[in-house]
């Protein structure tokens, strides 16, 4: 039997081995990075430092450009390689069936979450929740196309103002929520991580998943406003807290990127509900 280069026969069937690997050790672990980021952010704001603020802002732009211009364009090739390997090893149909079910569940939870958000916002603001949700449809559709909360800010702001939110509140809340309110992305990451764990034969535990969700809520604040930025920010947590291997991380990226636009759409649509509540509180 002839075995192609890079392919080895394992105990469970055919496995594909890489020709070479490049290992880059992290500068610091995930928790240290998060704490350092918060200390720097709060410290710069407290002392009103210009020098360090300029350096950190430039570093942020460098990271965003790397993600936007290098990682994201090359990510489809990485995902193609993952699915090619799964097709070669005969696993692709089973995994695609799971992906389809997860995709439908994610969309259903997005819709349910938005309905709950606007029901709460409507009860507080005294406005029709379903009419308010309908007014946010342009922002939802724009986010589906752009896959970026930041790029959708002008449309989200205008849609929010159509719900009777004052200009001052809308202009403040929407840009802020585009950075810190990533509910759709968090829902997606949680469900996708559960799916990947089940595919890999890992039994999810409530304690570890609860800790992961709590940390994910904090980490999403640091997610860059570019397509796929949320999953990139969460990779460290997935490996350190859930024990994801490189193969699992690859599957996670493939599953997340397949519906990233809908997670972003959920994010920006929910921003409108938050703005309604803030506007009501500000008028008291």
Structural shape: globular
| CATH fold descriptor of the domain at 101-284 | Proton glutamate symport protein
Unreliable sequence segments: 1-13
Tell me what portion of residues adopts beta-strand conformation: under 5%
Number of helices: 12
Q: Architecture of the domain at 101-284, according to CATH? A: Orthogonal Bundle
Determine the N-to-C terminus distance. Answer: 79 Å
CATH homologous superfamily grouping of the domain at 101-284: Sodium:dicarboxylate symporter
Mean pLDDT: 79
Major sheet details = 2 strands, antiparallel
Rg, nearest Å: 21 Å
Helix content: over 70%
Strand order of the largest sheet: 1-2
Give the number of DSSP strands.
2
Instruction: Return the string of H and E elements.
Output: EEHHHHHHHHHHHH
Report on this structure:
With 284 residues, the chain is an all-alpha fold. It has a domain at 101-284: Sodium:dicarboxylate symporter (Proton glutamate symport protein, Orthogonal Bundle). The protein contains 12 helices and 2 strands, in the order ββαααααααααααα. It has helices at residues 30-47, 51-89, 92-125, 129-135, 137-146, 153-161, 167-180, 183-199, 206-219, 229-241, 246-257, 260-283, and strands spanning 7-10, 13-16. Strands 1-2 form a two-stranded antiparallel ribbon. Helix 7 (167-180) crosses helix 12. It is globular, with a radius of gyration of 21 Å. The model is unreliable at 1-13 (pLDDT under 50).
């Amino acid at each position: 039997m002839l075995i192609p280069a890079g392919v080895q026969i394992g105990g469970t069937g055919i496995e594909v081995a890489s020709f070479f690997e490049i290992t880059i050790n992290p500068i610091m672990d995930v928790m240290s990075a998060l704490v350092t980021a918060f200390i720097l952010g709060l410290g710069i704001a407290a002392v009103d430092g210009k020098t360090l603020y300029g350096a950190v802002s430039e570093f942020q732009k460098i990271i965003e450009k790397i993600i936007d211009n290098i990682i994201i364009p090359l990510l489809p090739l990485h995902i193609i390689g993952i699915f090619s390997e799964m097709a070669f090893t005969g696993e692709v149909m089973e995994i695609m069936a799971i992906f389809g079910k997860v995709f439908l569940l994610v969309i259903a939870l997005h819709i349910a979450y938005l309905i709950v958000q606007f029901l709460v916002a409507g009860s507080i603001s005294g406005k029709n929740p379903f009419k308010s949700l309908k007014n946010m449809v342009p922002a939802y559709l724009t986010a589906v196309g752009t896959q970026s909360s930041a790029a959708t800010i002008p449309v989200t702001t205008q849609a929010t103002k159509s719900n009777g939110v004052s200009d001052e509140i809308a202009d403040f809340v929407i840009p802020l929520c585009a950075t810190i309110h990533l509910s759709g992305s968090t829902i997606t990451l949680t469900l996708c991580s559960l799916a990947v764990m089940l595919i890999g034969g890992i039994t999810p535990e409530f304690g570890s998943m609860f800790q992961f969700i709590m940390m994910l809520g904090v980490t999403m604040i640091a997610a860059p406003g570019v397509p796929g930025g949320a999953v990139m920010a969460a990779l460290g947590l997935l490996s350190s807290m859930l024990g994801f291997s490189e193969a699992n991380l690859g599957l996670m990226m493939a599953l997340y990127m397949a519906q990233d636009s809908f997670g972003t759409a959920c994010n920006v649509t929910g921003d409108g509900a938050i703005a309604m509540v803030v506007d009501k509180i500000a008028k008291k």
